[in-house]
Recover the amino acids of this structure.
């Protein structure tokens, strides 16, 4: 600004001097030329005076603009603690006041956000749910305390690749996290022989132009723990016994009534007997299903011939056998294991899946001491709510279901010291995995 004023003054003086030379007579022009040093001195003094006046006149404006520049640079660096002096003319004072008010508001907002972040981080760190945030390269960006203890003995895991984090982990955990869909699986704690059921859910969101992947592992609340299940089994056995004591005489009386009234040939009486017989038969079957869950015997293990077992299964349900059958010897309760696989194949057939896409695979994972059996379909899968409760006794989404199919499978598998997990498949359908020891 000072340079501009000085240049403008110099240009004006030169223009005035040129006009003077052009308009005056020759004698005056000769006099001016002879005394040019005097005019040069006056020109220099005029320029210096203009620069001095410009400097003192714009010093306040320059200071205010410099302070505003410094303040905006601090804003750029996310530093809102600076305030600039309120000075100068009315417009400069108003601009400085507006800047200071904005800085005050931003400081309050930043403090509020900081407090919320601290609160949110405290809640997340204190949560028993395992939380992992990954980038597109499957690198851990954030992990809460539960995740660090589950995967890395409480040490920091930020910056690690998910594959490296899963090294040495159980096969069920690795399989669940490598599956791109939600799922339900079981883990065995070293300090507890009981298997712990976990629910896996995934989320994805876009932040700063990058996709982030959120993994949540929730240990399911044991609505029916082992002791409660034992109580339920005892109640079921008592109720089944009492109901059987009533159903058996009713069925016997129906047969006696038919014999006594067979000569009457009364259609209404025949309808009454048929209805009573149908309902008692249905009640007997209902009691049998619950009693089977309550009176599950300990497994009687024997050597399993996979060829014979799969052939028997194909007599009941259609499926495609994937891969080769294991050559190693395994020992299970053949009747119970057949019941488990029949239940799973029955569910697959009732899922709406194309029958040609129902598969059974028996394979050996990385752990040589375990065997994995997978039943897959291409049906509708399970919603998150259904998946969380699928292994609970008496929970069913079917109108005529007893809610004991998958819980019975779980009881049988766990009685063999194994575990069961459920996962929605990548495209469509459900995958049920049975993890069993080979010993």
């Amino acid at each position: 600004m000072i340079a501009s004023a000085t240049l403008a003054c110099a240009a004006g003086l030169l223009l005035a001097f040129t006009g003077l030379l052009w308009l005056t007579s020759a004698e005056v022009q000769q006099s001016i030329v002879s005394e040019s040093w005097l005019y040069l001195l006056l020109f220099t003094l005029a320029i210096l005076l203009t620069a001095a006046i410009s400097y003192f006149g714009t010093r306040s404006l320059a200071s205010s603009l410099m302070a505003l520049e410094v303040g905006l640079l601090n804003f750029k660096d996310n530093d809102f603690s600076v305030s600039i002096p309120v000075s100068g003319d009315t417009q400069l004072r108003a601009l400085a006041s507006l800047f200071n008010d904005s800085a005050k508001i931003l400081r309050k907002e930043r403090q509020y956000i900081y407090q919320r972040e601290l609160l949110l981080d405290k809640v997340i760190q204190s949560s028993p749910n395992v939380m992992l945030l990954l980038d597109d390269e499957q690198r851990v960006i954030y992990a809460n305390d539960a995740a660090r203890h589950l995967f890395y003995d409480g040490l920091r895991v930020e910056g690690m690749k998910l594959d490296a984090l899963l090294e040495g982990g159980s096969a069920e955990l690795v399989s669940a996290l490598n599956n791109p869909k939600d799922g339900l699986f079981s883990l065995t704690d070293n300090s507890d022989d009981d298997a712990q059921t976990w629910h896996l859910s995934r989320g994805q969101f876009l932040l700063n132009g990058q996709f982030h992947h959120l993994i949540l592992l929730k240990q399911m609340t044991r609505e029916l723990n082992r002791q409660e299940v034992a109580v339920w089994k005892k109640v079921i056995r008592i109720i089944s016994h009492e109901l059987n004591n009533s159903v058996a005489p009713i069925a016997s009386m129906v047969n006696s009534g038919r014999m006594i009234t067979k000569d009457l040939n009364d259609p209404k009486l025949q309808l009454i007997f048929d209805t009573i017989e149908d309902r008692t038969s249905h009640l007997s079957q209902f009691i049998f299903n619950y009693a089977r869950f309550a009176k599950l015997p300990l497994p009687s293990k024997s050597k399993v011939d996979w060829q014979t077992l799969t052939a028997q299964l194909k007599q009941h349900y259609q499926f495609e056998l994937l891969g080769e059958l294991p050559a190693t010897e395994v020992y299970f309760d053949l009747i119970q294991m057949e019941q488990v696989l029949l239940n799973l194949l029955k569910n697959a057939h009732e899922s709406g899946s194309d029958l040609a896409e129902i598969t059974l695979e028996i394979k050996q994972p990385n752990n040589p001491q375990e065997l994995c059996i997978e039943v897959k379909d291409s049906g509708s899968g399970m919603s998150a709510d259904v998946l969380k409760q699928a292994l609970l006794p008496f929970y069913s989404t079917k109108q005529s279901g007893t809610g004991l199919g998958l819980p019975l499978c779980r009881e049988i598998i766990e009685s063999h010291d194994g575990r069961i997990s459920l996962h929605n498949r990548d495209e469509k359908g459900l995958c049920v995995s049975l993890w069993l020891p080979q010993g």
In short: The two ends are 91 Å apart (CA to CA). Residues 228-294 form one domain. The chain has a mean pLDDT of 76.
